[in-house]
Design brief:
The chain is built from 17 helices and 19 strands. It has 498 residues and is an alpha+beta fold. It folds into three domains: 183 residues, Beta Barrel (Hypothetical Protein Pfu-838710-001), CATH 2.40.320; 106 residues, 2-Layer Sandwich (Nucleotidyltransferase, domain 5); 190 residues, Exopolyphosphatase. Domain 2 (Nucleotidyltransferase, domain 5, 2-Layer Sandwich), CATH 3.30.420.150. The strands form three sheets. The protein has an eight-stranded antiparallel beta barrel with strand order 1-5-4-3-2-6-7-8. The chain has a six-stranded mixed sheet with strand order 16-15-14-17-19-18, with helices on both faces. A hairpin with a 5-residue loop joins strand 4 and strand 5. The longest helix is centred in the middle third of the chain and has 20 residues. The chain is elongated. The two termini are 41 Å apart. The relative contact order is 0.11.
């Protein structure tokens, strides 16, 4: 073989590549090539194929901190293969060596002996049409791939310079997308595995996580939807810093979610950060620590953007297509409000009204007196003064951990069921009942309440008070609960149109 020059590779499979499509369309191709190849797929994961009558093998040597893979060519051998060459092929495929190792094996003999149907190695004929470009000094390739009666596309960027590959991928707007090797991507394509995506919502009190796949007709089917209480905003005030223990909990939580997403074979992991990261003086540093540990880049979004995405999610999920609508999402550090009518957003804003702040200020994580409760409600009402004097909307919808827990307690759900919570109607009487339930108990006693997530016991009273105040200020005797939160809005907007 000629001099081996290992290259760092990044690749994704799918019908479309989001923001990269327009960028690639503006470029002039540097070459076009069509080929027919026979891939040999096995659990070993090596890139083994027959192209131009040559057995061609690349093996994975290294994966860097950004998830780039360094593949090294180790063989280009003609048929018939020698015993030594065959041994190298079988090792790459993870197959045991026969005794004796046959010599001078033809391609037909190899396929019949080692890649027959039903065995550990699958022979997959593949037709490729590759269009090459140069992006950021790297070789890029957009290919149409046909195999097993299915056709998809794959976009690859490669170079000997790993930093240049990462810069090119991020420049294409694909920094959130997961690197997928050719053998893994081809196997998923042949098996008909639906495209999967993940979203992480790093909030002030909890980190929420969803993995969903695109079902027939473009609808989403949820595979994972959970939250981890990390209390990122513990002790955090405006301009203050996230403490080390809270940072470490968030880093560990996101890393665990990223690992789970990759086990599901997602194409991309989008992550957004909200009030806690926005207000903290070290928010960017915490996001950097998350990226260093998990490879997930958190985009710290504005309160307005958070409110807009919540509106997208709730309006679609609840079928509130007509009339005036207010949607609010109350979290640990802030609450987002979106006012709209029909499909039009009229106003959106975020206020620094969150359950963690009032819990710490009024010590609402324990049993409190009527007087303390009134003082907390008065403070919340003052901080929500931006809602004063507004006309009552036709509908009021709410999302977030506080309101979904209120709904779960309302239904007595020992095991959380998003389909039961979605669309639940809560009236003021039920909110008042639960406020009294939490006011008269400390956090330990609250944890015994059926339906309440144990890690939310400290902040649920403050959350219920915020919900109650919003209803009162907007003149609505009831609200509709949306289990579809910010993460669903990100999922729909970032990946729903592909």
């Amino acid at each position: 073989m000629a001099e081996i020059r290992p290259r760092w590779e990044w690749r994704s499979f799918g019908e479309r590549f989001g923001p990269a499509e327009a960028h690639i369309a503006s470029l002039s191709p540097t070459g076009v090539q069509e080929s027919d190849e026979l891939y040999l797929l096995s659990d070993a994961g090596a890139n083994v194929k027959v192209r131009d009558a040559l057995m061609d093998i690349k093996v994975l040597r290294e994966v860097d901190a950004d998830g780039l893979e360094q593949w090294t060519p180790v063989m280009k051998a003609s048929f018939p293969m020698s015993a030594a060459e065959l041994a190298q092929v079988l090792q790459a495929l993870g197959l045991p060596l026969p005794d004796p190792v046959p010599d001078a094996l033809t391609q037909a003999d190899f396929m019949s002996r080692f890649a027959a149907g039903g065995g550990p190695v699958r022979g997959v004929p593949v037709h490729k049409r590759r269009v090459r470009y140069v992006i950021g000094g790297c070789t890029a390739e957009l290919s149409e791939v046909t195999a097993a009666g299915r056709t998809t596309r794959t976009l690859a960027v490669e170079s000997e310079d790993a930093a240049a590959v990462i810069a090119a991928v991020r420049g294409l707007g694909l920094g959130d997308w997961v690197n997928t090797s050719y053998p893994r991507g081809l196997a998923a394509m042949v098996d008909g595995t639906p495209e999967r995506f993940a979203v992480v919502d790093a909030g002030t009190n909890s980190i929420k996580f969803i993995v969903a796949e695109r079902a027939a007709g473009g609808a989403w089917r949820t595979l994972v939807d959970r939250a981890e209480i990390t209390r990122l905003g513990e002790g955090l005030g405006p301009g203050g810093a996230i403490i080390d223990s809270a940072r470490d909990r968030a880093v560990a939580g996101v890393a665990d979610m990223a690992d789970e997403a990759r086990r599901h074979g997602v194409r991309a992991i989008a992550a957004v950060g909200t009030a806690g990261l926005r207000m903290a003086s070290n928010g960017a540093q915490v996001a950097g620590a998350v990226r260093a540990k998990s490879g997930v880049a958190i985009e710290i979004i504005s309160g307005d953007e958070e409110a807009r995405l919540a509106f997208v999610s709730a309006r679609a999920g609840l079928g509130l297509e007509r009339g005036s609508l207010v949607i609010f999402d109350t979290g640990g550090g802030s609450s987002q409000f979106t006012f709209g009518h029909d499909a039009v957003i009229d106003e959106r804003f975020s206020v620094d009204v969150g359950a963690v702040r009032y819990t710490e200020r009024f010590r609402l994580d324990r049993e409190v007196s009527d007087q303390t409760l009134r003082e907390a409600l008065a403070a919340i009402a003052s901080d929500l003064s931006r809602l004063d004097g507004r006309a009552a909307p036709d509908a009021l919808a709410a999302m977030g951990g506080a309101v979904t827990n209120l709904a779960a307690v309302r239904h007595g759900l020992a095991n959380y069921d998003p389909d039961v919570v979605q669309g639940t109607v809560l009236d003021r009487a039920e909110i008042d009942r639960q406020i009294e339930l939490y006011r008269t108990r400390d956090a330990d006693a609250r944890r015994r309440i059926v339906g309440l997530q144990p890690k939310r016991a400290e902040v649920i009273l403050a959350g219920a008070c915020i919900v109650r105040t919003v209803m009162e200020k907007l003149g609505k005797p009831q609200l509709t609960v949306s289990d579809r939160g910010l993460r669903h809005g990100v999922l729909a907007e970032r990946f729903g149109s592909q």
